Amino acid sequence: MSNPRVALTRCTDYSQAKISEAIQRQFELLGGLEKFVSRGDIVLLKPNFIAPKSRRHATQTDPAVIIETARLLKDFGAKPFVGDSPAWGNVFSCVKALKLEETLKKLSVPVRQLDKPKKCQIGIDAAVGISSAALDADVIVNLPKFKSHQQLVATFAVKNMFGCVSGKRKALWHFTKGKSSYDFCELLIAIYRFLSPALTIIDAVTAMDGPGPIRGRARPLGWLIGGTEPIACETICCKLINLNPDDLPIIKTARQIGLGCSNSDAIKIIGDDYSQNICTDFELPKLIPIRFSLVHVCKSACKQILLLAKAAIKKL
Q1: How many degrees, rounded to 5, is the angle at CA 44 between CA 39 and CA 47?
Q2: For the chain, how long is the longest CA-to-CA vector?
Q3: Is residue 165 within 8 Å of 129, Cβ to Cβ?
Q4: What is the pLDDT at residue 171?
Q5: pLDDT at 303 over 80
Q6: DSSP bridge partners of 81
Q7: pLDDT by residue (tens digit) across 86-99?
Q8: At what angle are helices 249-256 and 181-195 packed, to 10 degrees?
Q9: What is the pLDDT of residue 191?
Q10: pLDDT digits (tens, 9 = 90+) for 13-70
Q11: Could you give the angle at which helices 294-315 and 169-177 cross, rounded to 10 degrees?
Q12: Alpha-carbon distance values, 297 to 88, 160, 175 (Å)
């Protein structure tokens, strides 16, 4: 894609007024809500629900971003639902940790576990189990969290769609494709392209640095970053924290396969100027292997089964 646009909106806290304005401005800068969604569309809002931790940890997409995006879509006449397949717990425990339950209920926005996978050929000679709930949505709006990542340096736009792979199948793909960063990132990019979110809006009002994506440090950045071309979004996110895009495995892989735009000079930034607000002390993690051992996969699956069983018992 030539000259993709990336929208930057300055937003220094999660107050309703500021987030609402920043979300609306994201859509306006990128062509208007009607460019992405039609009235009556079923829209999957895909946040980053990796583990049931509160908003103060910056582990998950902040509830304010989810709520105000859902509210905007509801007012427009679309039918949003919130869905994910977390690595730990389930979507309901993640929603509870963020204290999202009541607000979503008042908005009549359902929450769905991204389960019931269907085998999909995604273009890299691999059949991947993608949630039928994600496949059945008319539109996907990708709402990732801006985070450091111990296996991939940092994650911005692309990896969040990996959450549409149901359950512990994600851990198996870490085992199958994790021997090389190229193979694993090629898988992530292929899943993103297959699901083709209409829009990505990255929550970087408060980001995570250090040993992410779960145990890092919450720190203010003050941005929402949006666009339709994920590699361009990833590239500008790197610029916001003074990170060389060449050091990001996802961008490096995209360049090798000739996908997207990683040339910052060719990307049109719309919205707020970032030149005076570059973070120069964003702490990158010490990297660990992408590939999980088979023992790790088995232990992880057993822990997840126990967590889900406990959650089911509580509902009885």
Answers
A1: 135
A2: 57
A3: yes
A4: 87
A5: no
A6: 44
A7: 999 999 999 999 99
A8: 80
A9: 97
A10: 999 999 999 999 999 999 999 999 999 999 999 999 999 999 999 999 999 999 999 9
A11: 170
A12: 13, 20, 8
3 state DSSP class of 295: helix
Q: Burial code of 17-52, b = ≥16 C-beta within 10 A, e = fewer?
A: ebbbebbebbbebbeebeebbeeebebbbbbbbbbb
DSSP 242: T
For residue 231, CA distances in Å to 13, 227, 234 come to 26, 10, 5
Beta strand 79-84 pairing with 42-47: parallel
CA distance 97 to 94: 5
- Cα–Cα distance, 71 to 236 (Å, whole number): 27
| 3-state helix vs strand vs coil in the chain, percent to 5 | 40, 20, 35
Token pair recorded at residue 146: 């801006």
Distance CA 9, CA 22 (A): 6
Query: Which residue, chain included where needed, has tokens 């829009």?
Result: 199
Cβ proximity of 165 and 195 under 8 Å: no
Task: Output the pLDDT for position 299.
Answer: 56
* Domain assignments of the chain as residue spans, ordered by start: 5-315
As a whole number of Å, the end-to-end CA separation of the chain is 51
Confidence of residue 169 (pLDDT cuts 50, 70, 90): confident
Pick the CATH number of 5-315 from 3.40.50.720, 2.30.30.280, 3.40.50.11440, 3.40.50.2000: 3.40.50.11440
**Identity of the residue numbered 223:** W
Alpha helices (H) in 120-208, listed in sequence order: 132-136, 169-177, 181-195
* Cβ count within 10 A of residue 170: 20
Q: What is the DSSP letter of 124?
A: S
Question: In sequence order, which residues have a C-beta less than 8 Å from that of residue 190 and are 6 or more positions away?
Answer: 122, 123, 124, 126
Tokens standing for 46? Answer: 């895909």
Packed helices 230-240 and 249-256: angle between N→C axes, nearest 10 degrees: 140
